[in-house]
Structures
1.
Amino acid sequence: MRVLVIGGAGYIGSHVALEMMEAGHEIVVYDNLSSGTKQNLFEGERFVEGDILDYERLRGTLAEGYDGVVHLAAFKAAGESMLAPEKYARNNLSGTINIINAMSETGIQRIVFSSSAAVYGEPAYVPVDEAHPTAPENFYGFTKLEIERILAWYDRLKGIRYSALRYFNAAGYDVRGRVRGLERNPANLLPVIMEVAAGMRPELRVFGNDYPTNDGTGVRDYVHVNDLAAAHVAALERMVRTDESLVVNLGSEAGLSVLEILEAARRLTGRAIPATMEGRRPGDPARLVASSTLAAEKLGWKAKFSDVDTLVSSSWGVYER
Ligand code: WQD
């Protein structure tokens, strides 16, 4: 298949583009390089530098003809979205509507959309399955849910099929070491720990150690980017086979605490990784873990690389200095 990977020079997009090529698909990457980097472009891909807010360029690119689009060109810092909703509205909402409208205009029928566990908000129960109520606690999660709803309308009105993949906590780097581009100013736990280990920042601030969890720190479902990437391929191929849309969680179903990851990082890097205990970060749930039963059923998908050692060591392979 011929696939346009929008955001394909980014952290997750670069892994998706690689996996799509491995599966034999022809890849064009469309990226404005705002978070992505040319370092994440690979031999065999064609690169179009473009912004999703540039409707004419986007439509012109899509008019070249594609069997499917994968859209990973979103801002993803939940905290920032509460301070700068305009930025998220413009890119994550308007930009995505541009993609969907340009697909409709050019007759492209399939999209894999990066959604998020942030659509659920504070979990009412865990593991969280797709039937869990959606009540985003931050504007970022709202943008993801809103796009899912628009996609459902375009499915009905325009026959565009979509797979909304609700990622839990994406982490790790390509287990074969092909992706080398570091995220700029990361806020997520594992890249922050890696930056401390590599001497790029002084310490890890642990946000809360009084949660009702095994060791008092927050528990999350970390899913390796290679596992996420495999799910994108499976989702696109399934849409061709079944002509059906899908909304599905992608998680490992395992919960890891902040301290469990920190201890694994100290052990695997051999670095001290200083950490200080701080108060809870507003809006953080104690425990967020996925049920991925539906992904197994619909996509034949299961996380393979999402154990703590693989998450940490694949990241350290990129950060070590
Ligand atoms: C993980 C755990 C923190 C940093 C966010 C978004 C969510 C999704 C994934 C995209 C928590 C703790 C973190 C640090 C810490 N994004 N932590 N010190 O908040 O679960 O989810 O990323 O879809 O929408 O909200 O991820 O990596 O920020 O935090 O103690 O410096 O690590 O409190 O328990 P989070 P995270």
2.
Amino acid sequence: MPLPSASQTPSEMGAAGAQDAQQVDVAVVGAGFAGLYLLIRLRRAGFTAVALDTADDVGGTWYWNRYPGARCDIQTTDYSYTFDPELESAWHWSEKYATQPEILRYLGFVADRYDLRRDIRFGTKVLTATWDEAAQRWLLTTDNGKPVSCRYYIMASGCLSAPKPPEIDGVGDFKGEIYFTGRWPHDGVELAGKRVAVIGTGSSGVQSIPKIAEQAARLTVFQRTPNFAFPAHNGPSPADRVAALEKDRADYRAQARMSLTGVPLERATEFSWQLSEAERRQRFEKALAAGDLVAMLSQLWADQGGDLEGNALASDLLRERIRSIVKDPETAEALTPRDHPFGSKRPCLETDYYATFNRPNVTLVNLRQEPIQAITASGIKTDRRSFDLDVIVFATGFDAMTGAITSVHPIAGRGGKSISDVWASGPKTYLGLTVAGFPNLFMITGPGSPSVFSNMVVSIEQHADWVVDCLMAMREAGFTAIEATEAAQAGWARHMADCSQLTLHRLANTWYTGANVPGKAPGLMPYPGGVGPYRTICDEVVSRGMLGFTLSGPNGAAQCDDGEIVRLQPDVRLVLNMLADLNLPPLESFGAEGARGFVAQFNATRPAGRPVGEVLDGTLAGADGPLPYRLYRPATPGPHPIVVYFHGGGWVLGDAQSDDPFCRDMCRRSGMIFVSVGYRHAPEHRFPAAAEDGYAALRWIGEHAAELGGRPGPLLVAGWSAGGNIAAVTCQLARDRGGPSIAGQLLVNPVTDCTFDRPSYVENATGYFLTRSLMYWFWDLYCSPADRTDPRASPLRGKLEGLPAAFVVTCEFDPLRDEGIAYAEALAAAGVPVEQLQAGGHFHSSFTMVDVVATGVDGRAKMAEALRRFAEVEEAMPKAAE
Ligand code: N01
């Protein structure tokens, strides 16, 4: 089959090639888990389809990766198709973790059971894929047999199917045998009596090294980066997992689909600081005994995956285990990962991996200390020594995800644009399923979808179902082309970036981020927001009229509902969905007492805040009698600057307890004393009680600063919501009433004015917890309409010159957003130094729901930095508290 020449236009090529092409509705690349399931679904839906695969049989990744020790590391209870209960009962796995041959048998069994091979062209490589604009079809040229003309083209080419080149000089000079784990010979390799090298210690290396060591005369392992690994404990499937599946198979599968990883295991909800060291160790031992990747990654403590301190506790326990197995201390240290947090790089399940390094025939070469200079005719030369070898095994990994698509063949979309060019600075996709400019092209588990962060089979089934359902709906509606919009795609990129903030993947050089391939654009490729949330997003795209897609068809049929599917931060979306599911009556319908009770009850279910140096309760003098306060002291040596803090709650609700996690967090981050003031509440004490209490508290704290452990010098003031209002007012009163001196004010979502017609009040009137009607209610209880223009109620209406420097935080989905911005702008216009944080995707409670809205971390870090600048604190914070 001649290759299309560069001078041919897609239409010419289409016209020429299409004449004798195999005509199908859908062409699929790949006959692994994804390709096989697609064929089943497409056939059942009445589409004509063909799958093309370079391999001679089904299996995909399991066809190629036949190296010694190759197994799956998701348990067989979960690593199976779930679409057909009869298939599930017809197949029995022999072990907890299936070997590569058993998985290959399974896929062959599936192919036979559904008679799939007749629609698969084996031994066929697609050479080019070109969108023919005139015909509205894809034309594929192949190296074997007819070209293919298809309406829809689906890449089911996996995530890890393009092995990475060795990137070491001299490979061609080596006179011995060379093998790649990802392309292992099908008739096996004889290693007995040979001197073997393995380069690479990822999952493939960790699985193959113990097996190769058993066979080879000598094994030398060349390691660049040690990985975290823990035992697989293979054997029969665990009885409890099997029982859970068999008790209610449909429910088990449904839970898997809505879980974060595609495996229905409960995640830890307690934070590391809520557990004693003994409790933490007990959990670790339990996860270790389970021999399960998902258990170790999610069941230790809630902060293990997203927080450096929580993660370090897990990493340390895993490191300790390495030292307990590997006898030679230098080798043990070399095998100990220290350059990345646990889970940020794909961890491995191991069987005898560490113990293998105690064998007399095994040597570890630490490439960090002695890099490879070259491969020579006789072996490998590092900058310290030479190793004579008979065999070199490259377990050096893959050009992952994007490589699994771009390296298959050139793909030319609308206007001849190449997907490799579009992705030159990193993958751009909508939902990891489609790419703008490439109509009717779909990717199964593509970059931007949960894919390799999940049990692949669950994600494959979800994608295949979504695509085939989409094609059926299009056929029904008379559409023949679908394409993602640029706006939807850009929105997805932003959502991906938001989700990434919840993980520690940015702190490791891995194939997840493209860092393993020289020159590849960096960026996290799999979707880190979880399988269940991702599924609900894909479903929402459909329920919102294929939001973010242009659909078109013959006779001018066209539809485009453009927009971004997720505008909220990922955790804010989850919180708001959870609240919506509770279907609570409006807070204001409880009355003031009832609302206080409700909030107290809600707060009681929250995890305890993080430890600080000291927390003590006391009493200070308010405007009209004693007021309670709670003081948070950092663990660092004092004296510290003091921040006078006012809690939120619409002047009606709240107390030190309600804002306790925020105060603890800010105390730790800023290294400052926070004094949370218990000012009087409405309706019992209406305006100006709260404002006057705020000022009185400020004075009292200023006068008692030294006793409280405060540093001499000006105070700082901070507050959230109505507390932000009191903080702003307090600064104005302190200026006008002769002090005390204030170095800076931190206003978080402050109430600053008594008008309700700014756009944010309209756009965010409902649906974001703080509603417009709740704000009306707060104002009514606090302040009569006649008093509301008093600057002590609406500080925006006061004189703003000469106020302390301010840091003003506003959130996109908050009715109070625009009055916060207006206050910041008015302060700036009055000559006050102001910084703003306009937090996109956040809602009114984002920064104070400390342990629920993890994406608020970045904002709180900025707030703490601002306080430290205001107070002119120069010494750096201890690393862990940052
Ligand atoms: O590949 P990898 P893999 N010189 O990229 C090293 C899945 N999988 O094939 O980390 C020297 O993880 C590289 O070093 P560094 C699983 O998702 C699953 O092992 O880049 N060394 C690393 O040590 C897995 O994560 C299963 O510094 C070089 C290793 O080679 C993914 O596939 C089994 C080098 C590559 O590790 C990939 O795993 C197998 C060089 N030039 C795989 N280049 C199961 O289900 C690379 N390295 C169990």
